[in-house]
Every structure is written in C-alpha cells, then in structure tokens.
Amino acid sequence: MSFDSCFDIIGPIMVGPSSSHTAGAVSIGRFIYEWLGDVPEWAEITLYGSFADTFQGHGTDKAIVGGLLGMDARSHGIRESQEEAKKKKMNTMLNPMTDVGWRGHPNTAVIKAHLSGQTVIVVEGASIGGGLAEIRSLNNEPVRIAIAADAEIKQIAAGSKNREGRYS
Amino acid sequence: MMKERMKDIVDATEAGNSSIGEWMLAREVSRSGRAEEAVRLQMKERLQVMKQAVEKGKANTCESESGLSSGDAFRMNTYVQQGTPLSGTLISDAMLFAMAVSESNARMEVIVATPTAESAGILPGVLLSLAHNHQVSEDALVMGLFSASAIGYVFANHAMISGAAGGCQAEIGSAAVMAAGTIVEIKGGSPAQASDATAIAMKSLLGLVCDPLAGLVEVPCVKRNVIGTSIAFSAADMALAGIQSRIPCDEVIDTMHRIGSSMPSALKETSKGGHAVTPAGQKASAAMAARPCSF
C-alpha cells in the first residue's frame, strides 16, 4: 500500500476501534448503498478471515450495516446501526465463515443485497488497512476499486457502473 | 511521486529554510492541487475532532462492548485533579488525554486515526497537553499535525504502520515517534533535531509485539497509548538538548522494517501469542465468543 497524502497518516476521522475492521468495513457497505441508490431491502453479509474471527469486538457487522444504510466512517450512528436497520426495514443476515481455510484477503466481506426485489448486487470487498477499502469483485466480475475513508463513494459507485475507473 | 526518506525531508527543509510541517503542507498543496487554506482547514477539522474525543473521553465511564477497558481515564482524571502526579502536569495531562481518546476508540466513538485507530491517543495527548500547559496556539498545533504526518509518511512508505504487518512497534511505535518529532518542531527545534527525536523514540520501541486480548484494541493497547506519550517527551527532550541519534533515522526505520518482517505472525495482531494466550487472554476470548450475535 502506498501512502501519499498527509491525510492518509492523520486520518481518517472515524468511529473506533479499528481502521481496517471498522472504517474500511463501512466503506464496503456504503459502496453498495450508493450503487443501489437506496437502502437495500435485504442484505446477506458473509465474513471471511479476520473479519469472521473478530467482527463482534470490532463492530465490523455494525459498520457494514451502517454503510448499507448510507452512513460513513465518521457517523456516530454506527454503534446503533442494527436498530436503525430495523426502523428502515432492512433485513440482514450475517454469516461469519470461520475455519473455512479462506485464502483471500484476511479482512473480506462478501455482500449480496437487493432493492425492491429487482436489483441484485454481489460485492466482494476487502479492507486493506488504514481505513482503505477495495472492491475486488462486482457481480461476479473481478474488479479493483479503491475507496479511501473520506472518498466520494457516490461518484466511485457511479463510475463502476459506467466501467470508468474499473479494471480487472 | 517520490516517497521521500527522512534525510530527503531534512535536506529539503534546510535548503528551503522551512520546518518539516511547512514542507509537508507545501507537498500536499502540490500533489492535490488544492488551495493551501483548504488543506489547512481540513487538518484543523482533525484537531477539533481530537479535542472533542479528549473532552468526551475524560468523563465517560461507560463500558466498551467487551468490557475490557473502561473507567481508567476517569480514574486518571480524578488523580490528576487531586494531587501532584509524579510525572508533572505536562506528561500527566498527556497521559490522561491519550487514555481518554483510546478508551473512546474502544467504545466506538469518533476519533482520528494517527496513524491508526489503535494508536489514536498519543498525538492528541501530546499536542493538547502542550496547548494546555505551554500555551501553544491552535495554528501551531495544526502545523504540528503536518509535521507528524510527514514523519508517519516516511514510516508508512519505508517500513509499516499496521500491527498486522509489523507488530505494535508499527502502531504505538509510529505514533510515539510522530509525536516526538512534532514536539521538537513545536518547541522550536530544527528539522535535524526532530529527525533525531524520531530515531531516539523508535529505538526504545523496536520489537514491540501486537498481542491484544481477544483481538480487540483494548488490552494492552489503551495503556500503551498512555505510556507512548512519555516516551515521546523523553526523546524530544534529548533531541532539544542537542543529543543526536548515533544511528541515522532512516537506518532506524530500516531496522524497524526488518524486525517487523521477521516477527512471527503469532505476535502480529493474530491473538495467537504474547498476552493474548495468557489465562487472562483466553478468558477474554471465551467471553467474546460466547456473546450473542446482535443480528
């Protein structure tokens, strides 16, 4: 990973406790929110590697759900994101895949979500450190879309639809 | 863009007659194409968030999700208010502020990663204690954050700043050395002295392993943030006294990289070694595993 900006070192502004297990996880969920253009009706979240092993203490699950609701890494609401999901009628299912011999990035979430029974998105996202996330597959197609914690995720999601900034 | 080493930065500041912080600000303006004022304001916002995290954390006695860390900032605050702490007000305030931020981080409050969330207490602890006890202006603190980012930038690019990659020396270590160099700049030391403080501080933290209980950023992370502040002040005092590091800063950074790379993975944020496998650590892991899933 290459650090270039002073704000890569002093930042991001984020809810704790971990830049990779919390801040990066929010961005993966938020990418899906922006891609769909709304809060999904239903989301199935599968965690792998260290995400699966330590999600509870790090609030990785809350962070991903917060992102799916449109929150960002600094949103105070992340701690109570599950309650917010109930209010917004978003149904979630969580599968922590421990002991499956995961060979991908140690902090990976695969999220399948849909909106009003039509649009379905499947995303594999990795949290690669320092709050940076990377979308590694989008609808079963390999991609590499980097997302910094304070990035304009809306534009990144729009770009991924236009195949701009997208390469495999 | 070139990834400068510490010597490159010190040489550039000497040629340009600037501080390390001013150099980093100019570099950011050049790389981003943004106005200097906008870049300064973005950094100032980070300072404000640090201040809020300290204020909220000092009085908060709520438990973290795991229950492993809570109430110690409140205890420290009471102690600092009541008596005369052995280490004096400058260091004891820094310790208190660092603890307040680190406990807030464990509680999922808003903090600024400096350079990581796990080590987010040290820099605000040191800077806000300097502001409180030595009347350092807000502008000087913001410039200090640019100094700190320059030092962290060198470690991030030429060694590592994550516990998973290099152990705790890369997290608490990087944060403490960023603070050490920054103190020197704020107190009017030269860039070469800031570089010496950085090297001196890191030499005391080399080899520190990342061994958190149950994989959580709480034990021993919170107290390491607290102690990191006093290492930063000690190293800064030595550099300001004119004491040089006998090993050049960049060679210390290379040493950290080598040690981090050869450290066994059991000691790099996997909770498979160190304190994590003590009876206390195993108890914490079992308690976390038994918690009901919130879904």
Protein model, in words:
The complex is a heterodimer of chains A (168) and B (295). Chain A has six helices and seven strands. By secondary structure, chain A is of the alpha+beta class. In chain A, helix 4 (60-68) packs parallel to helix 5 (81-87). The longest helix of chain A has 18 residues, at 19-36. Residues 164-168 of chain A have low confidence and may be disordered. The longest helix of chain B is centred in the N-terminal third of the chain and has 24 residues, at 36-59. Chain B is 64% helix and 1% strand. Chain B has helices spanning 6-16, 20-32, 36-59, 72-82, 88-106, 122-134, 138-158, 163-166, 172-186, 191-203, 221-240, 249-262, 279-289; one strand spanning 110-112. In chain B, helix 6 (122-134) crosses helix 11 (221-240), helix 9 runs parallel beside helix 11 (221-240) and helix 10 crosses helix 11 (221-240). By secondary structure, chain B is mostly helical. Chain B has a single domain (9-280), classed as 2-methylcitrate dehydratase PrpD (Orthogonal Bundle), CATH 1.10.4100. Chains A and B meet through helix 1, strand 1, helix 2, helix 3 and strand 3 of A and helix 2, helix 3, helix 5, strand 1 and helix 7 of B. Strand 1 of chain A pairs antiparallel with strand 1 (110-112) of chain B.
Counted up, domains of chain A total 1
How is the CATH topology of chain B named? 2-methylcitrate dehydratase PrpD
Q: What is the rounded distance between the termini of chain A?
A: 18 Å
The CATH class assignment of chain A is Alpha Beta
Number of helices of chain B: 13
Task: Order the strands across the largest sheet of chain A as they lie in space.
Answer: 3-2-4-5-6-7
Structural class of the helices, strands and pairings of chain A? alpha+beta
Q: From the 3D coordinates, which CATH architecture of chain A would you assign? A: 2-Layer Sandwich
Distance between the termini of chain B: 45 Å
CATH class of chain B: Mainly Alpha
- Shape annotation of chain B: globular
**Total number of domains of chain B:** 1
> Strand-residue fraction of chain B?
under 5%
Give the second-level CATH assignment, the architecture of chain B. Orthogonal Bundle
Major beta sheet summary of chain B = none
Radius of gyration of chain B: 19 Å
Biggest sheet descriptor of chain A: 6 strands, mixed
- What's the average pLDDT of chain A? 90
